[in-house]
Design a protein that fits this description.
The complex is a heterotrimer of chains A (377), B (269) and C (306). Chain A is of the alpha+beta class. Chain A is built from 8 helices and 20 strands. The radius of gyration of chain A is 25 Å and the shape is elongated. Chain C has a single domain, classed as MetI-like fold, CATH 1.10.3720. Chain C is built from 14 helices and 4 strands. In chain C, the strands form 2 sheets. Chain C has a two-stranded antiparallel sheet. In chain C, strands 3-4 form a two-stranded antiparallel ribbon. In chain C, helix 5 packs antiparallel against helix 8 and helix 13 runs antiparallel to helix 14. Classes of the chains: A alpha+beta (377), B mainly alpha (269), C mainly alpha (306). Chains in contact: A-B, A-C, B-C.
Chain lengths: 377, 269, 306
């Protein structure tokens, strides 16, 4: 089989498999002088997983990635690769490869030599390295560009060379630092699918860093949402989207209505709440939020629908302020009676569950099940 | 767990070599500065601090020679630097703000020519030239030669500065009804002032320092400081030479520092 | 404006296109008369007949070049065989300049690299520290070097004083002293272009190489050095070319045995030999060498850019 993980048989680095966790980050702290970039981050990434670190710029995701690669020292805590501590090993002694944000292709080497570089450094002869580089280039469909210099390639081609270069030495873990951010939207979408396939095909653990939540949700087995140096929530795409733990995650992932509510009572796993203007809502209770708490509630706009008359369930009375045409969707901005502003999204299709109302119309906002979720601060 | 930081940028030994480099660069100058304050007439023995050799420069038996050489040096440097800076400013304007034209690169090449031709060759050529046209060698020949080789030194900081000024400034000025000339004098020139000052200072120092070309084109009996020092050194390094050298060194260092501070202050604002 | 866009930068424009002829005229006149014309006349002089005690007789002669390249025996009546005296002086100059360039590179590269990897605020200060001595009069610097290195000079005093040497080390009047003097004369020319190249270098390339299992010194050799090569080549040229025609360092630090081109030429105009056409011819040969080197360099730079 062409793709077998781990390059120890290539002259290796002595790190052998012991556990099924490809990477364990244990209580890692990173400080730059007074500034703390990472605050006691712990997470485990399973073997063969497509794992994504998602967050806005400055959240510490790239710092964490660079610590795993060995470019940044860990101030406190440890990093383990299949159970072996790797903190303290320089990058060239870690069987982990990186696809860099701007690819960092060696400008003075052609594509083939770029891809073969890692193997050569692992002690393979130049001809062996080239042969293997050729195989990997075939895999990313770039064989005909072998003799080109990186500057003679398009952005998408450079991206795939960077990928081939990082995969060629058969790393145990592949790190990808926003590798798609320089590509245009269409190419990015195509690469997302290609990356996902490559990961399944090679069985290598991928750790992907991005600030694009859609990209993260599309590709990943699991996502760690990060902000201000901490992991805010860790879970699969569905979990993160539908059951955000706190305000930051709910706000960062997708579009949402964040509304201040007060919890009146909790009964059989349901929380009864009220918001300004005397409106009442019931939703699933969340551990850690009890009766009397003043918290925020997230209402996903695409899980709300409008009607001209109240329905059986709970509905809120509101007035349409404006309709915004987005293309696939139509977004309606509403003013709740004595309450906050509201957004509702409906699919721009004749089969849509909601019709479009003229501005000024009085309507009722209805909720699908699970549309509302209480959030920790 | 606290591993030694593995910083890819750091190569062991490079800091040491840098410090060694600075020692090599500064040791000779510092030694000469220190020995210029030596009380002893011998350059080998140290007999304590004294300013006697500085006094000797101004009042000693050779003081008349040094004074006239210093006057020549400074007058030539002042005029040569002024003329060269003016020519360089005009040229930079043409080359960087004159659009594309056939002689653009040729003009740039001509201006940098004195930097490319070995100094000794320029010296020989200038000497032969003055000889061929029957021009008597003296202060004027030195001045003309200095103007020529000062131009590139003035040009470099001026053009560097002009490259950093977006042309939209002059275009904005002309949009606001300034003529080309007004856009130049009222907008471009003030913006270029730091570069022009730097260029002038560098040209001044280069003129003040020149030995080889001056030595070829000077007339008999006309001396500048470097040629006077060279003549004296040929008979052995004497303490008064070290005193003159220290003073000249001081002038250069002060002027370069000034130029550096101007460019640095300018970058901050 | 179109001019700015066409040259790829907003810092150039065609605002003063109409006046450019007048703006460039002073430079053309000055440099034409004081640099171009003299070099042309020098070329003419190298083909004239020498007048004893300086000057020329306006009569065409290949005598100067003949003297340079041909040995015609004691009485000058034998057929031409190669004259080695002057070729050797040129060869020694090339060798000395080459050694000085190597010395500058060995010390200048780590220095430039070290400076370029300082925090940005500190860099200008370091650059300033390295360039200050360059702005001190070359003559004073060379004299200072001689003073320091003398047999009875401070360096030897120091080395014998701490017991490292039993007797003073003779440095002045050696090849090494000349190389050291040349190194001292032109070091910033080595440091500055390399510094500029390293500062532009994308350190992600080093990270990528390290990530792909290259140890530190392999990263230097395989990735960093090839990437900053244009800076290194520029530095070497900028040190080599002025070293080749230098006069002060060999004259003051080298002594009679370490004669270089500069001294040979100077002697034709100042000393007793007084052969102007020969001096002009030697200058022309030196100039030709330098221009060839610069031309090759310019072509390489152009190739590297494309």
């Amino acid at each position: 089989m062409l793709w077998r993980r781990g390059n120890e048989h290539l002259g290796g680095t002595g790190v052998t498999s012991r556990t099924n966790d490809a990477i364990e980050v244990r209580n890692a702290v990173k400080r730059y002088g007074d500034f703390t970039a990472l605050k006691h981050v712990s997470l485990t990434i399973s073997d063969n997983e497509f794992f994504t670190l998602l967050g806005p710029s400055g959240c510490g995701k790239t710092t964490l990635l660079r610590m795993i690669a060995g470019f940044e020292e860990v101030t406190e805590g440890g990093i383990f690769l299949f159970g072996e501590e790797i903190e303290g090993l320089p990058p060239h002694k870690r069987p982990i490869n990186t696809v860099f944000q701007n690819y960092a292709l060696f400008p003075h080497m052609n594509v083939l030599d770029n891809v073969g570089f890692g193997l050569e450094m692992l002690g393979k002869s130049k001809s062996e390295a080239r042969a293997r580089a050729g195989e990997v280039l075939e895999m990313v469909q770039l064989t005909q560009f072998s003799a080109r210099k990186p500057a003679q390639l398009s952005g998408g081609q450079q991206q795939r060379v960077a990928l081939a270069r990082a995969l060629a030495p058969r790393p145990k873990v592949l790190l990808l630092d926003e590798p798609l951010s320089a590509l245009d939207l269409k190419l990015r979408k195509a690469m997302q699918i290609e990356l996902k396939h490559l990961q399944k095909e090679t069985g290598i653990t991928f750790i992907f860093v991005t600030h694009d939540q859609e990209e993260a949700l599309t590709m990943s087995d699991r996502v760690a949402v990060m902000s201000s140096g901490e992991v805010q929530q860790l879970g699969d795409a569905r979990e993160i989207y539908e059951r955000p733990r706190n305000m930051f995650v709910a706000d960062f992932i997708g579009e949402t209505n964040l509304i201040e509510v007060t919890v009146d009572r909790i009964d059989a796993g349901r929380a009864a709440c009220h918001l300004g203007g005397g409106h009442r809502l019931t939703c699933d209770a969340v551990d850690g939020i009890g009766a009397g708490a003043s918290v925020h509630m997230s209402l996903r706009p695409e899980r709300l629908f409008l009607s001209s008359a109240p329905t059986e369930g709970e509905s809120l009375k509101a007035r349409v302020r404006e309709n915004i045409f987005i293309g696939t969707d139509i977004s309606t901005i509403l003013d709740l009676d004595d309450g906050p502003e509201f957004r509702v999204r409906a699919s721009n299709s004749s089969r849509g569950t909601s019709r479009v109302f003229e501005p000024g119309t009085e309507v009722f906002v209805n909720m699908e099940q699970g549309a509302a979720r209480l959030l920790m601060d | 767990m606290a591993s030694k930081k593995y910083d890819l940028r750091v190569y062991p030994g490079f800091r040491g070599i840098t410090l060694l480099c600075l020692v090599i660069l500064y040791a000779p100058l510092i030694v000469v500065m220190v020995y210029s304050f030596n009380a002893s007439p011998s350059i080998t023995n140290w007999e304590g601090l004294s300013l006697r050799w500085y006094a000797d420069v101004f009042t000693g038996p050779e003081s008349a020679k040094f004074k006239s050489a210093a006057r020549n040096s400074f007058v030539i440097a002042l005029i040569a630097a002024t003329v060269a800076t003016t020519i360089a400013t005009l040229s930079a304007t043409a080359i960087l703000r004159g659009g594309k034209f056939r002689l653009r690169m040729v003009s740039f090449g001509l201006i940098s020519l004195p930097l490319m031709v070995p100094e000794i060759v320029t010296a020989v050529a200038t000497l032969i030239f003055f000889n061929a046209i029957g021009f008597d060698r003296g202060l004027l020949t030195i001045l003309l030669a200095h103007i020529a080789f000062c131009i590139p030194f003035a040009y470099l900081p001026i053009s560097a500065r002009m490259q950093g000024i977006e042309s939209t400034y002059e275009q904005a000025a002309m949009d606001l009804y300034a003529t080309r000339r007004q856009a130049f004098t009222r907008v471009l020139l003030p913006l270029m002032a730091p570069g022009i000052v730097s260029g002038f200072i560098l040209a001044f120092i280069v003129s003040l320092d020149d030995f080889i070309i001056t030595n070829f084109v000077k007339g008999a009996g006309v001396e500048t400081l470097p040629t006077a020092i060279f003549g004296a050194v040929k008979q052995g390094i004497k303490p008064n030479i070290m005193a003159i050298s220290t003073m000249l060194l001081g002038v250069s260092v002060v002027m370069v520092t000034l130029s550096w501070l101007i460019s640095r202050k300018d970058r901050k604002t | 404006m179109a001019g700015g866009a066409a040259t790829g930068g907003s810092s150039t424009s065609d605002t003063y296109a109409e006046a450019r002829t007048w703006l460039l005229l002073p430079a053309w006149v000055t440099l034409g008369i004081l640099v171009l014309a003299p070099v042309a006349i020098m070329l003419v002089y190298s083909f004239l007949t020498k007048e004893f005690r300086g000057g020329v007789i306006w009569e065409f002669s290949l005598g100067a070049y003949d003297q340079f390249f041909c040995s015609r025996g004691l009485f000058g009546d034998e057929p031409c065989s190669i004259e080695w005296t002057y070729i050797q002086i040129f060869w020694r100059s090339i060798w000395q300049a080459g050694a000085a360039t190597l010395l500058s590179l060995v010390i200048g590269f780590p220095t430039a690299y070290f400076i370029a990897t300082r925090p940005p605020r500190q860099r200008t200060l370091w650059v300033f520290l390295v360039t200050i001595p360059y702005w001190v009069n070359l003559l004073i610097r060379t004299v200072s070097m001689k003073f320091l290195l003398r047999d009875e000079g401070p360096l030897n005093d120091f080395l014998t004083g701490i017991g490292l040497l039993n007797e003073p080390l003779a440095i002045v009047n050696t090849n090494f002293a000349v190389q050291l003097g040349l190194f001292y004369s032109y070091l910033p020319f080595m440091v500055l272009p390399i510094y500029a190249a390293v500062e532009r270098y994308n350190f992600a390339l080093s990270e990528a190489a390290s990530d792909l299992y290259a140890p530190r010194w392999t990263v230097l050799r395989r990735i960093l050095l090839p990437s900053v090569k244009p800076g290194i080549v520029a530095g070497c040229i900028l040190v080599f070319v002025p070293s080749l025609g230098s006069f002060l360092a060999p004259d003051l630090l080298g002594g009679a045995r370490n004669f270089m081109i500069g001294s040979l030429i100077e002697e034709q105009f100042k000393g007793n030999a007084g052969n102007w056409p020969f001096g002009a011819a030697a200058s022309m040969i030196l100039l030709t060498m330098v221009l060839i080197i610069l031309l090759i360099f310019a072509r390489q730079q152009a190739k590297a850019e494309s």
